[in-house]
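$ ./design --mode recover --in tokens.txt
reading tokens...
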């Protein structure tokens, strides 16, 4: 089994939800408030933030990318760098906390498919390239994520999806990633999907896209997807859901060394009760870091949403590491303790030698990927193995007898879900 040349240094960061005005702060951008927010995040010992421009505010017309908005984004990145925080930037926002933010030139009277219309594609390309180019010379700029869970616009349960095929999804991803690379060559540009990509049969964005396109794989772990409802807040499957997604991504990755970024994870109430949130944080981080090739963990989110803002789903209000008054919550202390624990420690967990077979049909389109979802045979068998103290990996059925491949991942034993006892 190949030994990594050197252990990774785990990155700990947070998705930056401003304490004042949420993402609407771009309308009244206040550098002093941003600096105060970043001071509090740096004090937790974090090393990066993920930042979210609102697409309609930055590109209100297809041929107008507002220079002042781009300047404000750069100001934010510079303020973060002054505090030792690197910056990852999402481009096409897109979708955030149940709200859609799409420019008027893609909707209603100008309705055009977000993923296939030639003019929309050209506008998106130029927007992503422009943001990347504006940040390219900033040493703390990590790279672009195309958008936040933009796959939700392509399928149910979105109330008005822009339908596409898997091939069209792949073409869109490749074209947009290339635009980011033109703007900032050599940075870590990637894309991010919510878990329909891994769990929903027929969804056009696939596990193969997630695990093979872009500089690394991003996973978003939310246990309100049926996991906590089925297994409870203290269930092994709940506390290991993030680790499961990390390992599931590895089943599709062509490169065993491909980095995986746990880009979103949080402790949503009431699925995770407030008095268990700190424990959930600690166990989720520990379990995730029992997986190889983890790039980092970025908590959702920085600050609680103010109760003065209306119409958010109830669970969205209390997800912050800090309150809107910048007071550190128990979740924030727990996450900071994990960051401090790992700051100078090498990350080199042992290989997972037992692998569970994942049979989703064709590996590229994954027509039966719901077997991997909570309640599905792969998910539940993996959870049973984990509850027994095992450290299961996952392997595609097409590779389950490939000795060279298994050896490259350190796998010595393979079993099917049917072979895992109830």
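writing sequence...
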């Amino acid at each position: 089994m190949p030994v990594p040349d050197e252990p990774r240094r785990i990155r700990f960061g947070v998705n930056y939800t401003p304490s004042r005005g949420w993402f609407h702060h771009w309308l009244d951008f206040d550098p002093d408030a941003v600096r105060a927010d970043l001071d509090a995040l740096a004090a937790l010992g974090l090393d990066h933030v993920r930042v979210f421009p609102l697409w309609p505010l930055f590109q209100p017309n297809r041929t107008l990318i507002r220079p002042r908005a781009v300047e404000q984004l750069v100001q934010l990145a510079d303020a973060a760098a002054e505090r030792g925080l690197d910056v990852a930037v999402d481009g096409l926002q897109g979708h955030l906390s149940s709200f859609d933010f799409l420019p008027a030139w893609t909707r209603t009277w100008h309705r055009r498919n977000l993923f296939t219309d030639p003019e929309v594609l050209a506008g998106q390309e130029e927007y992503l390239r422009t943001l990347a180019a504006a940040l390219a010379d900033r040493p703390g700029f990590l790279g672009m994520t195309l958008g936040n869970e933009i796959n939700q616009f392509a399928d149910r349960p979105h109330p008005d999806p822009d339908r596409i095929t898997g091939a069209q999804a792949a073409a869109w991803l490749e074209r947009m990633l290339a635009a980011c690379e033109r703007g900032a060559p050599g940075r870590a540009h990637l894309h991010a999907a919510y878990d329909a990509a891994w769990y929903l049969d027929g969804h056009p964005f696939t596990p193969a896209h997630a695990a093979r396109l872009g500089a690394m794989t991003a996973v978003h772990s939310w246990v309100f997807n049926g996991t906590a409802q089925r297994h409870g807040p203290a269930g092994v499957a709940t506390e290991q859901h993030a680790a499961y997604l990390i390992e599931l991504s590895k089943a599709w990755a062509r490169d065993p060394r491909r980095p995986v970024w746990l880009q979103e994870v949080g402790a949503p109430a009431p699925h995770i009760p407030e008095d268990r949130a700190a424990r959930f944080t600690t166990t989720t981080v520990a379990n995730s870091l029992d997986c190889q090739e983890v790039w980092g963990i970025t908590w959702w989110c920085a600050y609680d949403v103010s109760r003065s803002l209306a119409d958010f789903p109830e669970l969205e209000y209390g997800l912050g590491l800090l309150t809107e008054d910048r007071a550190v919550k128990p979740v924030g202390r727990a996450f900071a303790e994990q960051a401090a624990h790992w700051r100078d420690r090498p990350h080199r967990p042992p290989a997972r030698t037992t692998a569970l077979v994942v049979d989703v049909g064709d590996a590229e389109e994954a027509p039966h990927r719901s077997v991997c979802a909570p309640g599905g045979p792969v998910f539940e068998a993996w959870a049973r193995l984990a509850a027994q103290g095992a450290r299961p990996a996952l392997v595609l059925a097409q590779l389950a007898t490939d000795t060279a491949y298994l050896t490259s991942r350190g796998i010595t034993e393979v079993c099917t879900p049917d072979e895992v006892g109830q």
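exit 0
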